Amino acid sequence: MSADRLATAPAAGIDAQTVYRSVFAAYPDALIVVDAAGVIVLANPPAAALLGYADGELTGLNVDALVPDAIRPEHAAYRAAYADAPRTRPMGTQMDLVARRRDGSQVMVEIALSPLQDQGLPLVVASIRDIGTYPRVRQALLRARYSEHLAQLGRTAVDVRDPQTILAHVTTLVASALQLDAVIVYLLEPERQEFRVASSVGLDAIRPIGARVANRPDAFPGVLLHHAGPTPLGADGVALPEALAREGLACGVAVPLTDRGKTFGVLAVLSRRLQAFGGDEIRFLDALCSLLATSLQRAQTEEALNHAQRLESVGQLTGGIAHDFNNLLTVIQGNLQFLEDVPALAADANGQRMLAAAARATRRAAELTGKLLAFSRRQMLQPQPVDIGPLLASLVDMLRRTLDQRVRIELDVEPGLPAVLVDPVQLESAMLNVAINARDAMPDGGRLGFRVAACDAPVPDVAPEQAGEPFVAVVIADTGTGMPEEVRERVFEPFFTTKGVGRGTGLGMSTVHGFVKQSRGSIAIASAPGAGTTVTLFLPTLATDAHTSIDEAAPARLARGLRVLLVEDDAAVREVAVGFLAGFGCVVTSCTTGEEALAVLEREAAFDLLLTDIALGPGLRGTDVAARAQRRQPDLAVLLVSGFSEELVDADQTAPIDWELLPKPYSRNELERAISTAIGARAAPRA
Q: 350 vs 333, 343, 402, 528, CA distance in Å?
């Protein structure tokens, strides 16, 4: 007997057919036997299971039923060529074969072929193996699936601008990709005192979106901020909160969300079954969190940009309205002053009271216009000596009536303080901004204290030439929640706010900072979580002999016969200005445009003062008229007026030092004082 026969012969007493059938049925790989026409004549149970058929259903099918439609022509050609030259083909020679399952889905397979022609049978045995069961292949497929999920999130982040939509997509995607029971995204609130549940899957009852969790370093999720990277959760890592453990959650991983090295949130993935989170899963979560953090920060940046653009638009609109409003107020205020001099009203006490009330209303309206512009425009400050004690007393009295009654307000003013040199309206606005922030930091009430005292210690952050000058310190302290260092460092940044959407512009403290610095002062802030906040304004003082405020000072009287060239495009304002100037004894020539004024100067150069509005309609601007006029008449004094605060700021920075500036609306005394200053500045010897 040959060796081949010995190798294939069954042992004595064993039926060969039974053995072969048993081996065929028990073989772990899928086996099918195909005849020359491509019909399946035998199939073992693993073949039926792999391809989604019941036992026996494969028999009688053409093998083409197991081939995807797209590659059937290629498969038919290959089968014909194989029939012409049948040969054994082992596993592993082709790794990119695909089989079609009964439900139409596809599975990647390897196929070994063994022809039986040498046994006298026109058959071929195909051994089929699901390569997804190979560890390396399974790992490669897993990585490919994770990459596809990341690409999908990237496409969503590009197409969608709403952060909440992106967050919801992330939690759903992660739960599906890793077969998890719960996914939560915690985001730190700006003041870093609390986490907000920004998105969650599987825990709607105990971790609903919008729920708040205290940021405590000894509790979940606050403890996660101290971990630089992915952190295991459960028995082998950070303990899960009792509420999550009661839900049967046993393990998980937390990955930080970071921006420029600072953690601002956490992604926590949780499972009820103990499962290992390997390197591929961790890398997937890490990459996903990086993409999520970038998307959220981009959305925040875009919102800040949109916010800034909206403010710019509102600022431009407000500036135009304010200009017209200030012109109207100039007319109203001027005519009220004319009425005060009418003999019939001069002796009428009731009429005088009514005129005084109307005058006060116009001043308040002018202040309101300035405040409307303060959030988006640079202000033309009008510094003057201010007795800060009475100003603060008035502000505190107003705050006691308007702030939360649970906030106790205290005032302590050191006696004998010198006057400070500031714009009183802007100082009041600055302190009001600080007080409102303090109120918001004390939602359950507390103490807000104002203390004013001479500053004995060196004032921080002032110009070197001011180092020896006296300052007054205005200290505003609250007992609120306080601020961590990260917030305190950014408190003066424009558009930075810790308030919710729609509750703050982020311009309050930056406006305060700008006002104080523009007033040649300094500002300091001290705060810590739970310890309240103290804001200190250091304001420059004035010599004691200049304590009288400008409003109280009598205007300098102008010499009669002063020749004035007036340029004003608003007829009503021009009429008021002419009336004031005539009352001063001036000889007035009025024009409506800059071109008309220059033509007058061409004919007649004998003027002492050019009084012009800066905005003069579509023609020359007042600054251009003034520059050309002084080239023609070098000794001509210049007084610029405007209802645009920004125009005055620009003129203050670019105009010659001897040009005087006057904002609208102006009173008779303010106009007379400004003319006197302009004439004096032009008459003074120049270096």
A: 18, 14, 31, 56
Please give the DSSP secondary-structure letter assigned to residue 412. Answer: E
Single-letter amino acid, residue 85: A
| Distance in angstroms (rounded) separating the CA atoms of residues 109 and 105 | 13
Are the C-beta atoms of residues 32 and 43 closer than 8 Å to each other? yes
Q: Which pLDDT band, with edges at 50, 70 and 90, does 452 fall under?
A: very high
Q: Strand, helix or coil at 460?
A: coil
Q: CB neighbours (10 Å) of residue 178?
A: 19
Which long-range contacts link 31-36 to residues 24+ away (Cβ below 8 Å)? 31/125, 31/126, 31/127, 31/128, 32/58, 32/63, 32/125, 32/126, 32/128, 33/116, 33/123, 33/124, 33/125, 33/126, 34/63, 34/123, 34/124, 34/126, 35/122, 35/123, 36/83, 36/122, 36/123
**CATH number for the domain whose boundaries are 380-546:** 3.30.565.10
Q: Which helix (H) or strand (E) holds 430?
A: helix 424-440
Cα 601 from Cα 634, distance rounded (Å): 12
Identify any residues that bridge with 186 across adjacent strands, giving them in sequence order: 197, 266
The tens digit of pLDDT for each residue in 468-482 reads 678 999 999 999 988
Instruction: Note whether 13-133 and 138-304 share their fold.
Output: yes
Cβ contacts of 506 within 8 Å, gap of 6 or more? 307, 493, 494, 495, 496, 497
Token pair belonging to 285: 């979560």
**Residue by residue, what is the 3-state secondary structure of 95-160?**
CCEEEECCCCCEEEEEEEEEECHHHCCCEEEEEEEEHHHCHHHHHHHHHHHHHHHHHHHHHHHHHC
Instruction: Determine which helix (DSSP H) or strand (DSSP E) holds 564, and give its type and residue range.
Output: strand 563-567
106 CB-near residues (< 8 Å, 6+ apart): 68, 98, 99, 100
The residue assigned the tokens 């520059």 is 627
Specify the CATH superfamily of domain 138-304: GAF domain (3.30.450.40)
Which of these CATH numbers, 3.40.50.620, 3.30.470.20, 3.40.50.2300, 3.20.20.100, describes 563-683? 3.40.50.2300
What amino acid is encoded at 236 in this protein? D
Domain ranges of the chain: 13-133, 138-304, 380-546, 563-683
SS (H, E, C) 178-206: CCCCEEEEEEECCCCCEEEEEEEECCCCC
With cut-offs at 50, 70 and 90, classify the pLDDT of residue 219.
confident
Torsion sign (Cα): 670, 675, 680, 686: positive
Neighbour-count burial of 297, counting CB atoms closer than 10 A to its CB (0-12 exposed, 13-18 middle, 19+ buried): middle
Q: What is the pLDDT of residues 606-654, one digit of tens each?
A: 899 999 998 888 888 888 999 999 988 888 999 999 887 667 666 666 6
Token readout for 640 is: 């610029």
* Max mean pLDDT range (20-24, 32-36, 130-134): 32-36
For 576-634, the DSSP string reads HHHHHHHHTT-EEEEESSHHHHHHHHHH----SEEEEES--TTS--HHHHHHHHHHH-T
**pLDDT computed for residue 140 by the predictor:** 65
Looking at the DSSP bridge assignments, the partners of residue 180 are: none
Predicted pLDDT at 494: 58
Q: Which CATH class is domain 13-133?
A: alpha beta
Contact 672, 556 (CB under 8 A): yes
Q: Phi then psi for 603, rounded to 5 degrees?
A: -85, -35
- 423: how many CB neighbours lie within 10 A of its CB? 20
Q: 3-state DSSP call for residue 362?
A: helix
| Rounded Cα gap, residues 484 and 476, in angstroms | 18
